Amino acid sequence: MTRSVFIGATAAAAMLAGAGYAAEGDTLADVTGRDQLICGVNAGLVGFASPDANGNWTGFDIAVCKAIAAAVLSDPAKVKYVPTTGQTRFTALASGEVDVLARNSTWTFSRDTDLTLDFAGINYYDGQGFMVPRSLGVSSAKELDGATICVQTGTTTELNLADYFNANNMSYQPVNIDSNAEGEQQYMAGACDAYTTDASGLAATRAAFASPSDHIILPEIISKEPLGPVVRHGDNNWGDIVRWTLYALIAAEEYGVTSANIEELASNSENPEVQRLLGTTGDLGAMIGLDAEWAKRAIKAGGNYGEIFAKTIGEETPIGLARGLNAQWTQGGLMYAMPFR
After folding, report:
1. Could you read off the pLDDT of 219-234 as tens digits, one per residue?
2. What residue range is the signal peptide (predicted)?
3. Kindly report the CA angle at 149 between 165 and 226, in degrees rounded to 5?
4. Which residue segments constitute the domains of the chain, with CATH numbers given?
5. Residue range 164-208, pLDDT digits in tens
6. What is the rounded distance in angstroms from the CA atom of residue 243 to the CA atom of residue 337?
């Protein structure tokens, strides 16, 4: 008990030190001063964040980093990507190693409060699932009693897994892994019967296999996993910039602003919301320390939310994800940008 209390106190102190950094710091000034955004990302998850052979990063979460850089620095290329694991990501943010975390991280009560971090919004509504080899002959997660399961440490996945098996009076043997890459290796080597993580992550992992059809994602979704970018608590203006950059991408899709027509709409749109969004009227940029065209640049960096989704993880990509809950609120989904006014 004494040792546990000591370890808990040490971890809390480390996070409080990070909170002090945020309260005293000015991330916008840091970013503009170095002329570069430092973005904490997944160490490698195809479709969301992964480098090619030349070290060029692409993916759904990478697009968020590029949009922020475009809004703040007028150049989506001015980003340094720092790979993080499930265990290191929040420490990297709290310590100031990265300016923002765009790494498929779940918004939870404890992370929002105990870690003194702020989630700037949700860019993907997800849920935890299970993937198994087709040869295992399993069609439901409720058939996994006694199975060995690969699970990433330092994630919400661990507790969700324990809760689900306890609720269904089943047992399992965890195979702990530190990253998706390790999970893929262990799973493919047969070290575990099943791999569990966010369903989107399972789809991305399966897409990278030599024979994706040899593996199935079971139908059960056992949790809510609202994923989104994270900033340090206490630096409110920087939080506003990240939050409203994300909302700009979502709002652009709702109002039909695309990478192809954005210049035309900036000049000719009669929609007051579009005019304010693109900086044609109003002074929204000045309210967060940016110029009038910050949102316009963010949208041009990779397109609106729908464009980004379609070309990185959508149904026409190897990942093959349907919009589902991530459709616009006008289309039966949960994507809903706050008003630009």
Report:
1. 999 999 999 999 999 9
2. 1-22
3. 70
4. 28-125+227-331 (3.40.190.10), 127-224 (3.40.190.10)
5. 999 999 999 999 998 888 999 999 999 999 999 999 999 999 998
6. 10
